[in-house]
Design a protein that fits this description.
The chain contains 22 helices and ten strands. The protein is an alpha+beta fold and about 625 residues long. The protein is globular.
């Protein structure tokens, strides 16, 4: 892999995961579905669970699916558009649960009798899989998990225990009624010694009852991403030896652990290495949700009439404020598509590099060794940063589009609330974005600046140039990093360390982490501007508008670091208006390019006669609601 402060691999934004043969097969399996209505309760979960079975009929086996970027991208993009709650189920089931089994178990173990049957049940969709790592009682619980898996040498089994209510695991676990299994992250205890956090495959329940030693709470609600969630506790649940997803590790007949993959300090990182696949594909889901939201809001704004006194009967898109918001969202959705491609490229590079290594030496990305707030940056700094960048961007796009559609934006039938809820939820799910940014910022501040001449010379004041924002945000990152390094040196010179040193600087570290993710995104977009978009005036302007919109958000830091002058900052509003005017003749073309297939995400918002289309979604026999 390239160094952490290097450029991501170029990506041309020319492979649409929604229009591949894999996407067509997934769309056919899921069929046209209306958006789930709030409060559907058990019927919603019933439908989501049955979707796993339908998907299993078209997906390749896990050991193929989990290393095929086209399948994973199509699976992520299609399921999030059909139903964001289904996407969360797919993440838990395929990427994390089956991903842990396929990745952490070696070939001999995958053939073991104890694993063959549950793997087959998971692959067929008969058994739903979840991933249990978060413990509900403490912040940053991943770094101090308290669930234990104690080895019983006489029976060669593991005994899972939850020490108290605060160590209960939280995930998208449903009440008994459908067989469920979980990959449980727990501290491996052998002869009273902790050997770090390891993954174990445990059956939670079947159609009628929970498994012995397992306690599942009543359902917990999450309004932003409605599914059944629950707390899970283990009260002496016993697991056969081969349910330990041990990779190359083993415990011999004398009860001695042998782990060629490293000691306890490496175990958590290896266990959470499954997160790479998640971070590589969440940006694809985020981009799909952002694209669908921006296109729907754009088309609705073209047809929706306003009756304000300035221009009675004019479409709301005639107003400059609506243009800036909607076209800015479209530009960011385009940028997120580029970020999604970069994340897949980086993951593919890492997988290719891993194939060239011995199986018992998992890669650790970017040389990151320790993390103060989460383990994610230590597993893979750039992929976790790109996940944070994509989800934060999708949250901005989906929330703004929802607001700009008025009350229509909040109706479940129009899908924007579901997409906004997905983006909001994944700010915490899959690695909390703020904590990831803190770790990234802290790590960048501790690094030596790259050798060679500084690259932070002030960019020319030309935001219409598609490369302007990339050069600008690169300079901003360098200056923020230099300022934070100086503050650290000053604090250490006064004898400060630990919390006393870092606590006053954490907000600066978080901001540096955020700007770092913006720079990674800008480089992805700039690579597109230099290739496919280079000969396309509309896309060049869309790229420029993306940069101008981001620069307006970061106008304060850009000015107080001296990257741009007050005069340049003051000119950004006019630049955004100018770029929107240039895009106006091309909005149909851009919307067509970014719109998802109608079969995946039908919404009344895009219909010229919105009211009639909305009424058509309602089933009201005899004048009553169904």
């Amino acid at each position: 892999m390239t160094p952490s402060n290097g450029s991501p691999p170029p990506h041309r934004c020319d492979g649409d995961p929604l229009r591949t043969r894999q996407a067509r097969r997934i769309a056919d399996a899921l069929g046209a579905q209306r958006p789930p209505a709030p409060g559907e309760g058990p019927s919603r979960n019933h439908r989501t669970h049955h979707a796993l079975t339908r998907l299993a009929a078209v997906l390749p086996p896990a050991r193929e699916l989990l290393w095929d970027r086209e399948w994973l991208a199509a699976l992520s993009a299609c399921t999030v558009l059909v139903d964001p709650a289904l996407y969360m189920t797919v993440v838990n089931h395929h990427l994390l649960c089956l991903g842990s089994v396929a990745g952490a178990a070696d070939a001999e173990q995958l053939g073991a009798e104890e694993l063959a049957q549950p793997v087959e049940a998971l692959e067929s969709g008969h058994r739903k899989g979840v991933f249990l790592v978060t413990e509900i009682g403490d912040a940053n619980s991943h770094l101090a998990l308290r669930t234990t898996a104690e080895f019983d040498p006489e029976r060669r089994e593991f005994v899972l225990r939850t020490p108290d209510a605060g160590a209960a695991k939280f995930s998208g676990v449903g009440v008994p009624g459908r067989p469920q299994s979980a990959v449980v992250c727990a501290r491996l205890m052998v002869d009273g010694t902790c050997h770090g956090v390891h993954p174990f495959l445990a059956d939670l329940c079947d159609e009628r009852s929970t498994a012995p030693g397992v306690a599942i709470s009543g359902p917990l609600g999450v309004e932003a991403l409605p599914l059944e969630y629950a707390l899970v506790r283990f009260e002496g649940a016993r697991l056969p030896y081969d349910r330990w997803l041990r990779g190359a590790a083993s415990i011999d007949g004398d009860g001695v652990l042998h782990d060629p993959g490293g000691g306890p300090g490496q175990a958590l990182r290896r266990t959470l290495d499954v997160g790479r696949r998640l971070w590589a594909t969440v940006p694809t889901a985020a981009a799909a949700a952002a694209r669908a939201s921006a296109v729907a809001a754009l088309r609705h704004s073209r047809h929706r009439r306003s009756h304000g006194r300035l221009a009675p009967g004019a479409p709301v898109l005639a107003y400059r404020t609506q243009q800036r918001a909607i076209l800015g969202a479209l530009a960011e959705a385009f940028a997120l598509d580029c970020v999604a491609g970069t994340a897949l490229d980086l993951w593919q590079q890492a997988e290719d590099a891993q194939m060239r290594r011995s199986a018992d030496r998992p890669a650790t990305a970017d040389g990151a060794e320790e993390a103060a707030f989460t383990p994610w940056a230590a597993v893979d700094r750039r992929l976790s940063a790109l996940k944070a960048s994509a989800v934060d961007g999708a949250e901005r796009v989906t929330a703004e589009c929802r607001r700009r559609c008025g009350v229509a934006g909040y109706l479940a039938a129009n899908r924007l609330s579901g997409y906004s809820g997905f983006a909001d939820s994944f700010g915490a799910a899959g690695g909390d974005n703020r904590l990831v940014l803190l770790d990234v910022g802290c790590a960048l501040a501790e690094e030596r600046p790259a050798d060679g001449p500084p690259a932070d010379t002030c960019p020319p004041p030309d935001p219409d140039d598609p490369t302007w924002w990339c050069r600008t945000v690169t300079a901003l990152e360098q200056r923020l990093a230099a300022g934070l390094r100086t503050a650290l040196e000053d604090g250490r010179g006064r004898g400060l360390e630990g919390m006393d040193l870092w606590n006053p600087l954490l907000e600066r570290a978080r901001q540096l982490g955020e700007v770092h993710t913006l720079r990674l995104a800008a480089q992805s977009v700039a690579a597109s501007a230099a290739t496919r978009a280079g000969s396309d005036p509309a896309r060049r302007t869309l790229t420029a508008l993306y940069g101008t919109t981001q620069a307006l958000r970061m106008a304060g830091p850009l000015q107080w670091t001296g990257v741009v002058s007050a005069r340049t900052a003051a000119s950004l509003d006019a630049a955004a208006d100018r770029q929107c005017a240039r895009l106006a003749p091309h909005v149909d073309e851009l919307a067509t390019a970014l719109a998802p297939p109608e079969s995946l995400a039908p919404t009344p918002l895009t219909d010229p006669d919105y009211a009639a289309a909305l009424h058509a979604t309602l089933d009201r026999p005899d004048g009553g609601h169904s």
